Amino acid sequence: MTEPDAPPPSIPPFAAADNKVLAPTWFFILFITTLLGLGYVMRPFAADIVATFVLVALFHGTYEKILRWMGGRRWAASATTSLWIVLVVAIPVSIVGYSLVIEALAAFNASRDMLANPGGAVDLFARAKNALGTLGLHLNDEHVNRLTYRAASILSDFALAQATKALNNGVTIIVHFTIVVVMVFYLLVDGQRLKRFVFDLSPLPIEEEELLVQKFQEVSRGILVGNGVGSVLQGVFGGIAMWVVGIPAPILWGAAMTLFAFLPVVGVSLIVIPATVYLMLVGKVTTGILFFLFCMAQALFLENVVKTRLMGTQTRMHDLLVFLSVIGGLAGFGVFGLLYGPLITVSFLTLAELYRRTYRHKVAERILLRSSIMDG
To answer: CA 154, CA 39: separation in Å to the nearest integer?
Structure first.
């Protein structure tokens, strides 16, 4: 006969009670540790993840239409939408980027050659000296020559550095864009499951969670469709105007105008005013005035009419907030700050509105209750 198994050792009641007390604390320590580890692993893809969510918010309507057209086949609809994103985003950006690199190098080389031979730019420098003289700033030929050779050296080094950087960045952009397209594909397929999972983890009421998602979608569409399209149009019209009046590298300066057009108030004037001064220095005073008036008129129209209608009233922020969020985003995150800055600002404003409507009264009630308990 086999001996019966020994009974398991009993756990003292006080030990079981201690485990029940320590279990939640230990669980949250493990949870926070693994969450930090996950954040560290995903840190190189932070920009890709944000770009993925933005593209999904922007193209989700297209995905739904393709899904209905394909009879509910999610994988096929997601693959078609991802291919459409590649055609709409990657190909135009690649063509424009290649043109910008070629034109930028040509512009830098032309500027270097001109500055390396001051005789070729003597008329321009003479006009600049006369203009500065009217302001009480006098330069002699020695100062001009020294500044000229210094500028030529700086431009030459800068052109070489930017060409190398553009080549390296081109490979990096291709890799990250491929990652984004893959994430878009899977997020379109399983986005609803991910949304339900996150909502189940969140302690917020469902209507507040939906409001945050709605604001993210509105801002994403507003920035990319409204602000983006309006800024691109300003850059296109500005580049055409520069080509008409004979300013060198119109594609390059048009792209610069597109970026600056994201800034309210100042915007394209940061490019238009120096270009106007250049035209006047080379003797095209009337052309410079007409160029300035046209660029500022189209910028005002696109900024206050087209952008407003495309973005809608719900995503509009005060111009000062937009200005600070874009500048702060650029300073903190680089080019991606054009998107991150407004997104973070709108997220804060949405949470502040939720606090004003819901949580302010609850916090006040808790403070009053705690005060009454302490007084009692």
So the answer is: 41
Single-letter code of the amino acid located at 317: M
Looking at residue 36, its pLDDT comes to 92
Asked whether the beta carbons of 82 and 188 are under 8 A apart, the reply is yes
**Span between the terminal Cα atoms of the chain, in Å:** 70
265 φψ region: left (φ > 0), alpha (ψ -120 to 50), beta (else): left
Tokens standing for residue 239: 């580049």
List, in order, residues 6 or more apart from 357 with CB less than 8 Å away: none
Give the Cβ contact number of residue 374 at 10 Å.
7
The span from the CA of 47 to the CA of 42, in Å, is 10
Under a CB-based contact definition with an 8 Å cutoff, are residues 49 and 63 in contact?
no
- Cα torsion 14, 19, 25, 27 to 10°: value is 180
Give the residue carrying structure tokens 């878009």.
184
Q: How far is CA 159 from CA 148, 152, 183, in A?
A: 16, 11, 35
177: confidence class by pLDDT, cuts 50, 70, 90? confident
**Tokens 């926070």 correspond to what residue?**
32
pLDDT tens digits, one per residue of 332-344? 887 777 778 888 8
